[in-house]
Amino acid sequence: xxxxxxxxxxxxxxxxxxxxxxxxxxxxxxxxxxxxxxxxxxxxxxxxxxxxxxxxxxxxxxxxxxxxxxxxxxxxxxxxxxxxxxxxxxxxxxxxxxxxxxxxxxxxxxxxxxxxxxxxxxxxxxxxxxxxxxxxxxxxxxxxxxxxxxxxxxxxxxxxxxxxxxxx
Length: 168
Hints:
By secondary structure, the protein is an alpha+beta fold. The chain has 1 helix and 6 strands. It has one helix at residues 16-42, and strands spanning 98-105, 111-115, 124-129, 137-143, 146-151, 159-166.
């Protein structure tokens, strides 16, 4: 049996917008998928890891050989187990070129001149705010016998800041 249609019309062509959507959808699927696959295959392990820590078995602790410091050498810094410099009973080790002191910044001021005979024009001065103090401290000037500390904002209370003098 043969059926003929007399009133058929030609099918419409796809619009440019529909073609753009299909091409964009294909690109957004295939490009990331291809990059993921290529990244996976290019990152296969080579057998060695680049790490500053020596490679060991998990749970194994590498042994550390302590460094012996000669008796007459100056102490520049101590390990992390040392107590805080804020404690007035602690004095630097004899023969050290570090001096630990405390500066007092008065309330409602942003600048304080500290007069100290241990300070020279070549001294290095390190400022250490007390725990909980969120202010920013900086060294404004330094000369023989004195230096100036500047703080970013005034405070209602007196503030204490540890300073460490290192003389070369």
